[in-house]
Design a protein that fits this description.
By secondary structure, this protein is an all-alpha fold. Helix content is 73%, strand content 0%. Helix 14 packs antiparallel against helix 15 and helix 22 packs antiparallel against helix 23.
Length: 531
């Protein structure tokens, strides 16, 4: 409507802030040759490309450069860069191409005009394609292969970067680039890198690359021969995928077991356990775990494996620990032997428990209970050597009979001390007494009895008889030191030096102290609950 009245139309446009309207009017003014007015309205519209274009047309390059530097408008910078290039102002063209992020144009000018100081930086700022173009330039230029290697690497072309590293003998770059290779890399390239590291004695890097290249057996041989430690990460790289081409199930199992064997050789028992387990060989996995000495994991592994052999292996291991002071370990030993149906081994353990009850706690009642369980287990066991089984049963039966006699004598002492002492005297005549009952305990009961009755000579005679029967005996271990002192004092005899030194060193048990020790461990384990 206002087109026929230019002044009114300009006033209308000036009153409105619509950028599109201002740009339209600027274009109209430019078409009529009104450049100053056009520049004014292009500036109002913030159309920097058009502003720069008009200033360039008018020959005002300084103003155009000022606008580009202030606004950083990419289109404007690119246009100005082209203008400077047309005028052979190369440095300025490179600068504005860089501001426009038109790195390809900037790199092209650097190559054509020898601005190598800027070329590398521009290439690193550009796209992979720009880096590749610059890399090709440096590759052909003598003494600049290191820059080409860096750019090929940065652009993601590892194969080209490594190949050039080999040709240019850029070994530092080779080490850097090889660390980023994965299974997608060219197998021949991986092999070549691996061979290079082997030749230079960098065996860990060689193994890593061989593992990536699926050369499992070669990698494992190097690990074994050159003592390259297999950690968790390397072990996983050496483990073939279940669906890996060219490797069937049996081959995969062989590789897993080979990894485990190398780990065993290196002392990596937990990792060996893991690989043996993945190979399905739980027996070897358990053997590896046993060598680690990790009791908690051994108990756990035995529980989840549910194999008889593993139960027995775990129980055998637990017996090597200080099970005498840990009821939980004793419980696990009994439980594992029971689950493993190793009744002969369980019988042997109960027999050992009986000896502990006697030697450490003087608890013959519990020892008798343990031997009873041992006899029951051995009776049910299916040993291949039946004659040996019968001999063991007979030996257990004889031990139980001897212990029972001593237990009976101790119990009878409360009601009939003299009869109890007579039973002890008869018991001392048994040929195999010391296989079941400690001779010192029998003499100890008799000596304490004589001392209570003030039969000092009988007590001293029993001590001498005990010393003759057990030459290296610690008398104070079986008889209370106060009782021993009372006997020698009553007979006006000097106390033997062996007894004196024993008392000084902390011995002097007898029944009173023995009862205290016994009370501390009572009810730690009840024999017979687990079978």
């Amino acid at each position: 409507m206002l087109f026929e009245e230019p002044d009114a139309l300009e006033q209308y446009i000036s009153r409105h802030k619509d950028r599109a309207l201002h740009k339209w009017w600027a274009q109209y003014m430019e078409s009529t040759g009104e450049m100053e007015t056009a520049l004014q309205y292009y500036e109002n519209a913030q159309d920097y490309l058009s502003l720069v274009r008009v200033y360039c047309y008018c020959g005002n390059m300084e103003k155009a450069a000022e606008i580009c530097n202030e606004t950083g408008d990419k289109a404007a910078c690119y246009h100005l860069g082209r203008q400077f290039e047309n005028q052979d102002q190369i440095k300025e063209a490179i600068h504005f191409f860089q501001r426009a992020q038109a790195f390809g144009n900037a790199i092209r000018l650097c190559k054509e005009h020898g601005y190598e100081d800027q070329l590398m930086n521009l290439a690193l700022l550009g796209r992979p394609e720009d880096m590749m173009e610059a890399a090709r330039y440096y590759e052909q230029k003598h003494g600049s292969q290191d820059k080409a290697v860096m750019l090929y690497h940065k652009a993601g072309n590892f194969s080209k970067a490594l190949d050039l590293s080999f040709r240019a003998k850029q070994f530092g770059a080779l080490q850097l680039i090889s660390g980023e290779l994965d299974e997608r890399a060219d197998p021949e390239l991986l092999q070549r890198c691996g061979d290079f590291f082997l030749e230079n004695g960098q065996y860990d890097k060689a193994v890593d690359l061989l593992a990536i290249g699926k050369k499992y057996w070669e990698a494992l041989k190097i690990c074994m021969d050159q003592h390259v430690e297999i950690n968790e990460d390397l072990a996983e790289k050496l483990t073939p995928d279940k669906d890996e081409a060219g490797i069937d199930t049996m081959e995969r199992i062989k590789i897993l077991e080979a990894i485990a064997e190398v780990c065993m050789h290196q002392g990596g028992y937990h990792l060996a356990t893991k690989k043996f387990t993945q190979a399905g060989n739980k027996i070897k996995a358990m053997k590896a775990l046993l060598k680690s000495g990790d009791t908690e994991k051994i108990v756990f592994f035995a529980g989840v494996s549910r194999q008889k052999e593993i139960y027995v292996m775990a129980a055998n291991y637990l017996q090597s620990l200080d099970w005498r002071k840990d009821p939980e370990i004793m419980k696990n030993i009994i439980g594992f032997y029971t689950k493993g149906r190793a009744l002969d081994s369980l019988a042997g353990f109960y027999d050992a428990c009986a000896m502990v009850e006697i030697d450490e706690y003087q608890n013959y009642d519990k020892a008798l209970g343990a031997l009873g369980e041992a006899y029951k287990c051995l009776s049910k066991a299916k040993m291949t050597d039946e004659i040996m089984q019968e001999e063991k049963l007979s030996h257990l039966k004889n031990k139980m009979a001897l212990i029972k006699k001593f237990v009976t004598a101790r119990r009878a002492y409360q009601d009939n001390p003299e009869e109890a002492v007579k039973q002890c005297q008869v018991l001392l005549e048994e040929q195999s007494l010391d296989t079941a009952v400690r001779v010192g305990d029998v003499y100890g009961l008799m000596i304490e009895h004589y001392a209570r009755r003030e039969r000092w000579k009988a007590a001293q005679a029993a001590m001498e008889e005990m010393r003759m029967r057990i030459p290296s005996v610690n008398m104070a271990y079986y008889v209370n030191i106060r009782t021993i002192e009372a006997v020698y004092r009553a007979l006006d005899m000097p106390l033997p030096k062996t007894i004196t030194s024993t008392a000084i060193n902390g011995y002097g048990g007898g029944e009173e102290d023995g009862e205290i020790v016994e009370e501390e461990v009572v009810d730690q384990i009840n024999y017979g609950d687990d079978v």
